[in-house]
Amino acid sequence: MKIKLIALSFVPFIGMLGFLPWVNKVEPFVLGMPFLFFWFVLWVALTSGVLAILYKFDPATREGDPK
């Protein structure tokens, strides 16, 4: 499980920067923003979701577990 959580933590990094050569373009405009700017805004929002998932399944954040 810990390996999966670590792998999940790299998803935003890969999504934001790994696809940069393919998304580095102005058109199409999405929600009035150039595509590259939209890509970054999208990944900021998705990163919040990924962090919420990591927090939910991280064993260190469970209540009631003796440490």
Report on this structure.
- The chain has 67 residues and is mainly α.
- The chain has four helices and no strands.
- It has helices spanning 2-9, 11-18, 20-23, 35-57.
- The two termini are 18 Å apart.
- The relative contact order is 0.15.
User: How many strand units?
Assistant: 0
Element string (H = helix, E = strand):
HHHH
Q: Mean pLDDT across all residues, rounded?
A: 86
Question: Uncertain runs with pLDDT below 50, 5 residues or more?
Answer: none
Percent range for β-strand residues = under 5%
Oligomer: single chain
Helical run tally: 4
Largest sheet: none
Radius of gyration: 16 Å
Give me the secondary-structure category: mainly alpha
Give the topology, please:
Layout: H1 2-9, H2 11-18, H3 20-23, H4 35-57
Helix pairs in contact: 2-4
Protein name: DUF3311 domain-containing protein
Transmembrane segments: 5-23, 35-57
Organism: Brevibacillus choshinensis
Overview in brief:
The protein is an all-alpha fold and 67 residues long. It has helices spanning 2-9, 11-18, 20-23, 35-57.
